[in-house]
Amino acid sequence: MTTFAIVDLETTGNAASKGDRIIEIGIVLIQEDGNVIDEFSSLVYPERDIPPFISSLTGIEEEDVLDAPLFSEIVEEVYSIVKNSCIVAHNIEFDLGFLNHELERAGYPSIHNQIIDTVELSRIMLPMSPSFKLGQLSEMLGMGHDRPHRALSDAQATSDLLLYLMERLKQLPERTLDYLLKIEPKLKSELRPFIQSAIADNRYSTTVDEKYELWHGIPVKKVNRSQAKQVLNLPPFEEWVTQVYESSEGLQKLMANYEWRTGQKSMSEDTYRALTGGQHALIEAGAGTGKSIAYLLAALYVAICKEERILITTHTTSLQKQLLDEEIPRVEKLFDRPIQAVLYKGRSHYISLVHFRYELEQSESDNYDISLTKAMILVWLTETSTGDMDEIQLPSNGKQFWHKVSSEQSTKSVHLDMGEDSYYDLARKKAEHSDLLITNHALFSLDLISEEDRLPSYDRVIIDEAHHLESVASRYFGVQFNYRELQRQLSQLTEIYQKSLYKQLSLPEEFFKDAGSCQRLVDEAKEELNQWSRYMFQQAKRKHRKSNKAKSDVGRIQCTLDEKDPLYQTSKEMCHRFLSSIRKLVYRMERMHNHLALTVKLVEAPSLQVLLSRLESQITFCKQIIERLNAFFMNDSAAAKWLETEGEGASNAVYLFSEPLDVRELLKTQLFEKKRSVVLTSATLSTNRNFDYVKKTLGLFGMDRLVESVIESPYQFDKQVRLMVPSDFPNIKEDPESFVEALSEAIYSMAHVTKGRMLVLFTSYEMLKNTYYLLKEFIDPEEFMIFAQGISSGSRDRLKKNFQSFDQSILLGTSSFWEGVDIPGDDLSCLMMVRLPFQPPDQPLQNLQNQNLKEAGLNPFMERSLPHAILRFKQGFGRLIRSSTDRGVVFICDQRIMEARYGKYFLSSIPKIPVSYRSTRELMNETEEWI
C-alpha cells in the first residue's frame, strides 16, 4: 500500500533561487486507505525578514519566528518522514523545489521520489471546477479547511483532496482509464500504478459503465434525448399574471423576501402586449425592477400558449448564466411542466468526438499542455451533458488544441460530426424544440447578416442589454482583423501538410509535391503578413507622435485609414501581396483535396475522413481571409476604417477594423421589418425622458406599432445616494498634471472616509495609468490595496473579485467597468467619475459619423455625442446602488455637470437625489457626516 507524504510550506516569497526561505512546514503522512500515520508541523526561522504581504496572507509575523528552529535543526526529522513516501503537494514544483533547496543547504540529498501534484490531478479529475486553488476546492467539496495559508492546515486539506480525487479516479470507465494510461507519461504526477489499479478494479465492476455510453469509442455520460413537450391550458394572461404577482401561490411562494412592485407587473404586461400584438417595444426598467423575471413570465406564457420558441439575446454571459441558473428554474414552478430553455452557441463551442479520437491516437509528440488538455477532456466527457467548451477550464495552450477538435472542423461535404453521437446536433435539436432560445448579441448579429442560418428560426425576440445592440451590430456588420490571431491560424495550417500523416496511403507523387508547396506558401504568406503588419505598426506610431492624440480607452494607438492617405494605399498593395500567397495556397490545397477525396472513396479509413474535413475547413478559412480583406479595401465611403496597435506591445501587434457608419437601415430591413415582434429592454435606453435617440440609432424612428415604457426604479435614491461635485479642481485642459494630482488627493481623502470600497471610473486609459502610478507613490499597500484595469493582472471579473476580497481597496477602471459590474452591499460605498463619459472626438468611427451629421446640417454634439454620453453616465451611476439597502456617494470630478448648459441633461437622466457643489474639503466633511 502506498504511503503519501503531503507537504505544504509557507515561505518569504516565490523563489528559493533568489534567497526566499521557508517560514513554516506542515507534513501529513497517510496511507492509500486514508489512515493517518503521522503529522509534523513547525515554524522555521528564515534568517531574513518576512515581507508585509506574506504576514498579511499567512498571519505569521516576525516575532512568531524569532524563537523558531532553523531548518537545519529539524532537517533530520523532516527527511526521515518523507524519504520513503510518495510526495504530494498542491503545486508540487513550488513545495518540492523549496524543500530540496533547504535539504541541499543542510547537506542532505535531494528527494526524487514518486510525486503527485494535486493541482494537476484536480484539473484532470474536476475539469469543470471554476478554480483550482486549495481553499476554493475545499469549500466547493465541503471539506473543512480551518486555517488557510497555514502549513499544517493546508497539508490536511490537501490530504483530504487527494483521497477524494483518488476515489474519483476509481469511478471512471475502463476505456477512459486506458486512454489516461497512454497520456500519463507526459504528466507531472506519477499516476500509472493508481490508474492500473483502477483498471483492475473496474474489470470486475458492473455499476461503473451503467452511467456511460460509447460515442466513437470514447465513454461519455448518457444524455437525455427526449424532446417531448406537454401542452398546457393556462387562464387568460391578465388573470394569470395577477395571480402570479399578487396571490400567495405566485411569486410570494417562490421567492424569499419577495416585494410586490407595480413596475414589474407593468413590464410583464407591456412585453406580452408587444409579443402577441405584432408590435415592437422599447422598455427601460430602472434598477431593482426585476426586469428579467418580468419579461420571462410574458415570454414563457406566449411560448407555451402558442407552442413557439422565443429568442432572448443578451450582451454578457453573466446575464445568460443568471437567466439559466437562477431566474428560469424559479419561474418554472409557476407552470405545470418543465421549461425547455437552451443556451445556443456556434459550432466552435462543441467538441467533435471524431476529431478528438483522431488526436488521441496521435499523442506521441504532445507537449505537457496538450497532454493535460486531453486528460481533462477525457474526464469531462464522462460528466458533460452538452459538450460545450465553456464548461471546462482548459490551460492556455489547450484553447488552441480545442480548435482542432471542435465541431467547426466538420464541413458541408464531410459530415463527420452529425447524427446521434454529436453534441452539436444534440444542441441544434434541443434548440429547435425549446420554449426559450438564449444567445448573445454577437451570434444574433451574425445571424442577421449571414446567408446561412446561424440560429434556428424565430419570429419573436427579446433583446436584453439592448443599449449594446448598435455597437455589437456595427462590429459584426463590419470587418475585424487581428494580426497575431491570423499568424497563429496560419501556423496551424502547416500540420495538415506533414508527409508522415499520409505515409500509409498510396497517393500520387503530385500530392506530396503540393503538400511541400503548401508548406512553403504558408511561410511566404506569414512573411508577407509580418512585413505588412510591421509597416502599419511603425506608421501608426509615427503618426501618433506627430498628432499627439490620446490613446484609446484601453491604451491602444488608433489611426484612421483614409483612402487618399499613402498609408492606406501602401497597406492595400502589401495586403494584395499577402493575398497572392493565400490564393496560390488555396489552389495547391484544392489539388491535395482532390487526390485525397478520390482515395477516401477507395479506402475505408476514419483518419482519412478527418484529414479531408480539416483540409476542407482550411480551404474555407483561406477563402474567408481573401473575401474579408478584399471587402476591407474595397472603396466604401459608408464605412469607417482604422487600425489599432498596442502602445507598449510587440512591433507587429496590429488590429484592422471596418464598421459601417450607420447600421439603421440594416437593422430596420434585417430585423424590425422581418420579425413579428422585437422587445428591446435595458436599464438605460432613454435620454431626456424619451426614446428618440435610441430609435434614431437603431432604425426604429418613424415606425408605428411601438410600445414605449419607462419603468421607474423602486429604490429610494434620495435617501440612499448623495451626488457630489468639487468646485475647486484645476482645469484639465490648461493643466492636466495638476488635475491628476488633485484627483489622486481626492481619491486618497475619500478612501479614508469610506474605508476604501471605491470604484473610480475613467474615460482615458492614459489618465488612469498616470493616476495609478501617482497613488502608488504615496499610498502604503498595508493601508489600501489599489487595483487598476490594464495594469493589475487579470480579467475584469478577476479584478472585481480581488477588489472585494480586501477590506480596504480601490479599483480604477475604464470603459468596461462603466457597466455590467455588480458590487452590491458594503463592498462599494463610493463611485467616482473622473470625467463625463463623452467619447474621444478623434475616435475614427465617431469622427466620420460627426462629419456625416454636419454635412446633413445637424449638430453632432446634440444628435450623437451628448445622448451617447448620457446613456454611459446612467450606466456608470447604476454601479453604486444594487439593492434597496445599499448607500453611497457618487463623486463627479467634472464641473461641466454643474456649469455647462448641457449639464442639466445628465442630472435629469438619473433619479432625483441631493447634489452638493462645494470645495473638495467641504465635500469630504459632508460625506463623513452622512456615511
The amount of helix comes to: 40-55%
CATH T-level fold name of the domain at 717-930: Rossmann fold
Low-confidence stretches: none
Query: How large is the share of residues in beta strands?
Result: 5-15%
Distance between the termini: 62 Å
Topology, number of strands: 25
Assign an overall shape.
globular
Which structural class do you get from the secondary structure elements?
Answer: alpha/beta
* Rg from Cα: 31 Å
Summed over residues and divided by their number, the pLDDT gives a mean of 88
Count of helical stretches: 35
Strand order of the largest sheet: 10-11-9-12-17-8-18
Largest sheet: 7 strands, parallel
The second-level CATH architecture of the domain at 717-930 is: 3-Layer(aba) Sandwich
CATH class of the domain at 717-930: Alpha Beta
**CATH homologous superfamily (4th level) name of the domain at 717-930:** P-loop containing nucleotide triphosphate hydrolases
Note the main attributes of this structure.
globular; exonuclease; 931 residues; alpha/beta; Nucleotidyltransferase, domain 5; ATP-binding; Rossmann fold; DNA helicase activity
Written description of the protein model:
Residues 250-518 form the Helicase ATP-binding domain. The structure is a single chain. With 931 residues, the chain is of the alpha/beta class. Among the domains are: 3-170, Ribonuclease H-like superfamily/Ribonuclease H (Nucleotidyltransferase, domain 5, 2-Layer Sandwich); 480-660; 717-930, P-loop containing nucleotide triphosphate hydrolases (Rossmann fold, 3-Layer(aba) Sandwich). 47% of the residues lie in helices and 14% in strands. The chain has a 7-stranded parallel sheet, with helices on both faces. Helix 28 crosses helix 29. The longest helix is centred in the middle third of the chain and has 39 residues, at 509-547. It is globular, with a radius of gyration of 31 Å. The mean pLDDT is 88.
